[in-house]
Amino acid sequence: MNRTVIGDLAAALKALGEHGDSLIAATATPEQLHQVGDTLARARRLLTDAGAPAPKTRCRRHPNGPVEPDTDGDCLLCRTRSKPTATLARREAPAADVLGVIDELGTDAAIRRYGGHAVNAALAAGNRSPATPWGLA
Ligand SMILES: [Zn+2]
Asked: What spacing in Å lies between the alpha carbon of 41 and ligand 1's midpoint?
Protein backbone atom coordinates (compact mmCIF):
# COMPACT_ATOMS: atom_id res chain seq x y z
CA MET A 1 0.00 0.00 0.00
CA ASN A 2 1.26 3.43 -0.99
CA ARG A 3 0.34 5.86 1.79
CA THR A 4 1.90 8.86 0.01
CA VAL A 5 -1.22 9.32 -2.17
CA ILE A 6 -3.87 8.84 0.55
CA GLY A 7 -4.12 12.60 1.19
CA ASP A 8 -4.69 13.29 -2.51
CA LEU A 9 -7.23 10.45 -2.66
CA ALA A 10 -9.13 11.90 0.29
CA ALA A 11 -9.17 15.33 -1.39
CA ALA A 12 -10.51 13.82 -4.64
CA LEU A 13 -13.25 11.96 -2.73
CA LYS A 14 -14.25 15.17 -0.91
CA ALA A 15 -14.44 16.94 -4.28
CA LEU A 16 -16.69 14.15 -5.53
CA GLY A 17 -18.96 14.69 -2.52
CA GLU A 18 -19.16 18.40 -3.35
CA HIS A 19 -20.11 17.51 -6.92
CA GLY A 20 -22.88 15.33 -5.49
CA ASP A 21 -24.13 18.20 -3.33
CA SER A 22 -24.26 20.66 -6.22
CA LEU A 23 -25.59 18.36 -8.96
CA ILE A 24 -29.30 19.08 -9.51
CA ALA A 25 -31.30 17.57 -12.39
CA ALA A 26 -32.97 20.83 -13.38
CA THR A 27 -29.73 22.87 -13.54
CA ALA A 28 -26.99 20.34 -14.42
CA THR A 29 -24.76 21.38 -17.35
CA PRO A 30 -22.53 19.34 -19.66
CA GLU A 31 -19.52 21.20 -18.20
CA GLN A 32 -20.55 20.12 -14.70
CA LEU A 33 -20.79 16.48 -15.82
CA HIS A 34 -17.37 16.80 -17.46
CA GLN A 35 -15.90 18.05 -14.17
CA VAL A 36 -17.50 15.14 -12.30
CA GLY A 37 -15.96 12.75 -14.84
CA ASP A 38 -12.51 14.32 -14.39
CA THR A 39 -12.74 14.08 -10.60
CA LEU A 40 -13.97 10.49 -10.82
CA ALA A 41 -11.08 9.55 -13.11
CA ARG A 42 -8.62 11.23 -10.74
CA ALA A 43 -10.09 9.39 -7.74
CA ARG A 44 -9.91 6.03 -9.59
CA ARG A 45 -6.29 6.67 -10.58
CA LEU A 46 -5.36 7.64 -7.00
CA LEU A 47 -7.16 4.56 -5.64
CA THR A 48 -5.08 2.38 -7.98
CA ASP A 49 -1.91 4.21 -6.93
CA ALA A 50 -2.81 3.76 -3.24
CA GLY A 51 -3.06 0.01 -3.76
CA ALA A 52 0.35 -0.20 -5.40
CA PRO A 53 3.47 -0.98 -3.34
CA ALA A 54 4.94 1.94 -1.43
CA PRO A 55 7.73 3.71 -3.34
CA LYS A 56 11.23 2.84 -2.19
CA THR A 57 12.69 6.27 -3.00
CA ARG A 58 11.36 9.83 -2.87
CA CYS A 59 12.26 10.19 -6.55
CA ARG A 60 9.37 10.80 -8.97
CA ARG A 61 11.33 9.35 -11.90
CA HIS A 62 12.55 6.21 -10.11
CA PRO A 63 10.06 5.54 -7.25
CA ASN A 64 11.14 1.89 -7.03
CA GLY A 65 14.80 2.43 -7.88
CA PRO A 66 17.76 1.78 -5.57
CA VAL A 67 18.07 3.93 -2.44
CA GLU A 68 21.24 5.93 -1.76
CA PRO A 69 22.84 4.33 1.32
CA ASP A 70 22.64 6.32 4.57
CA THR A 71 19.88 8.63 3.27
CA ASP A 72 16.18 8.98 3.93
CA GLY A 73 15.08 7.53 0.59
CA ASP A 74 17.26 9.54 -1.82
CA CYS A 75 17.42 8.04 -5.31
CA LEU A 76 20.76 6.40 -6.00
CA LEU A 77 20.27 6.70 -9.79
CA CYS A 78 19.70 10.45 -9.71
CA ARG A 79 22.48 11.02 -7.16
CA THR A 80 24.92 9.05 -9.30
CA ARG A 81 23.95 10.93 -12.45
CA SER A 82 24.04 14.38 -10.83
CA LYS A 83 27.50 13.99 -9.26
CA PRO A 84 29.59 14.36 -12.44
CA THR A 85 27.67 17.51 -13.42
CA ALA A 86 28.15 19.03 -9.99
CA THR A 87 31.86 18.24 -10.13
CA LEU A 88 32.18 19.90 -13.55
CA ALA A 89 30.33 23.00 -12.37
CA ARG A 90 32.65 23.33 -9.38
CA ARG A 91 35.72 23.00 -11.62
CA GLU A 92 34.54 25.70 -14.04
CA ALA A 93 36.80 28.74 -14.11
CA PRO A 94 35.59 32.14 -12.89
CA ALA A 95 34.13 34.26 -15.70
CA ALA A 96 36.64 37.06 -15.06
CA ASP A 97 39.57 34.67 -15.64
CA VAL A 98 38.04 33.38 -18.88
CA LEU A 99 37.26 36.91 -20.13
CA GLY A 100 40.84 37.93 -19.33
CA VAL A 101 42.21 35.13 -21.52
CA ILE A 102 39.74 36.03 -24.30
CA ASP A 103 40.90 39.65 -24.22
CA GLU A 104 44.58 38.71 -24.03
CA LEU A 105 44.86 35.65 -26.30
CA GLY A 106 41.54 35.40 -28.17
CA THR A 107 38.43 33.23 -28.03
CA ASP A 108 40.04 30.15 -29.59
CA ALA A 109 42.77 30.12 -26.96
CA ALA A 110 40.19 30.53 -24.21
CA ILE A 111 38.11 27.64 -25.63
CA ARG A 112 41.22 25.43 -25.75
CA ARG A 113 42.07 26.33 -22.16
CA TYR A 114 38.61 26.32 -20.49
CA GLY A 115 36.27 24.59 -22.95
CA GLY A 116 33.39 25.97 -24.98
CA HIS A 117 30.84 25.82 -22.16
CA ALA A 118 32.99 27.89 -19.80
CA VAL A 119 33.78 30.42 -22.54
CA ASN A 120 30.11 30.85 -23.46
CA ALA A 121 29.15 31.12 -19.79
CA ALA A 122 31.79 33.79 -19.27
CA LEU A 123 30.74 35.68 -22.41
CA ALA A 124 27.11 35.59 -21.26
CA ALA A 125 28.14 36.79 -17.80
CA GLY A 126 30.06 39.63 -19.44
CA ASN A 127 27.12 40.48 -21.76
CA ARG A 128 29.13 39.53 -24.85
CA SER A 129 28.08 37.51 -27.91
CA PRO A 130 28.45 33.72 -27.58
CA ALA A 131 31.38 31.93 -29.17
CA THR A 132 30.78 29.62 -32.14
CA PRO A 133 33.03 26.92 -33.58
CA TRP A 134 34.29 29.54 -36.03
CA GLY A 135 34.91 32.26 -33.43
CA LEU A 136 32.68 35.03 -32.11
CA ALA A 137 29.13 35.24 -33.45
ZN1 LIG B 1 15.78 9.06 -9.51
From this structure: 27
